Amino acid sequence: MGTYILKRIVTIIPIFLLATLITFGMIHLSPVDPAEAYLAAAHIQPTDEILAQKRQEFGLDQPLLTQYVNSIIKISQLNFGVSYVSNKPVWEEVTSRLPATIQLTIGSIMIAILVSVPLGFLAAIKKNSGIDHFSRFLSFFGASIPSFWLGYLMIFFFSVKLDLFPVEGIGTWKHLVLPSITLALPLIALYTRLLRASVLENLQESYVLFARTRGMDEKIIMGKHVLRMSISPMITGIGMNVGKLMTGAIIVEAVFSWPGFGRYFIEATFNRDVPVIQCYILLAAGLFLFSNLIVDLIQMYIDPRISKKGRQVQ
How many C-beta atoms surround the C-beta of residue 93 within 10 A? Predict the structure, then answer.
């Protein structure tokens, strides 16, 4: 296990460096001049003298290779520069907003798991029943409805009409309910379909037939064996979506005025706040890589055959 983790970390490093290179290239190929963006955010009239001064201050007058190496050194120290808008360190701004995004991510993932696991499992073992038809309808509905429209519907019915939950902001558990459900519905649609298809596939496997032939209790077969083997695709989906949600559910955070990382990125994009945009892209890449590593480790624990196959390939 330790060797596998070490090898995965070694493979992650060049991928992350490639992400830094792409980000660096995008910023320098962009028509937006960081110096001009800074002056525009600061409401300073740009002149040739001030632009030259800012380009020298930002190190933009140095060769590209030197700039890239310096940016790598700063990133390794979690130094993403200073926001053009707030004049505060970007990492300080990001870490102050990440807890809200983490809270929203955990809430939506928990709702999705609590609904999709029993629903997808029952839909598979009771194929073509009422609950199966309901799961298909919910999957179709959740996959097709836009998040921003669902968010406004939730606000209209549960906040404006029924006055059950706050319209926007953060503070109590009630503030978390509507945005979490809005984010969870597409995940429920995805996870329910994945689990249903996986359970149906595993029900045709020979180990299920052998277990029934030996007279093993049906609940043990379904719970201990079928469900455990079927949940692997769903875990993969969760890992991918955790990285996505952790970098900010941009639309939902905007609809509910949630002070998270995604909303901060939108504001930075409008303000052409280059250091914040760079930090967002690199943090997104890092979170995706880390979440995929965690998912692989969880799948190895659930199905030890994965690690054996990996050793055979090597």
Answer: 22
Cβ atoms of 104 and 169 within 8 Å: the answer is: no
Which residues fall within 8 angstroms of residue 50, CB to CB, at 6 or more apart? 39, 44
Q: Return the SS3 of 216.
A: coil
Q: What is the pLDDT of residues 98-139, one digit of tens each?
A: 888 888 888 999 999 999 999 999 998 888 888 989 988 988
Show me where the domains of the chain are located.
98-260
pLDDT above 60: residue 314: no
- Going by C-alpha positions, the residue among 179, 180, 208 that lies closest to residue 111 is 180
Phi, psi of 82 (to 5 degrees): -115, 135
Burial class (CB in 10 A: 0-12, 13-18, 19+), 77: exposed
> For 182-218, what is each residue's pLDDT tens digit?
989 989 998 999 899 888 888 888 778 888 788 787 7
Distance CA 129, CA 255 (A): 37
Question: Domain 98-260 belongs to what architecture?
Answer: Orthogonal Bundle (1.10)
3-state secondary structure of 89: strand
**140 vs 111, 133, 279, CA distance in Å?**
18, 11, 35
pLDDT digits (tens, 9 = 90+) for 44-84: 887 888 888 888 887 777 888 888 888 888 888 888 888 88
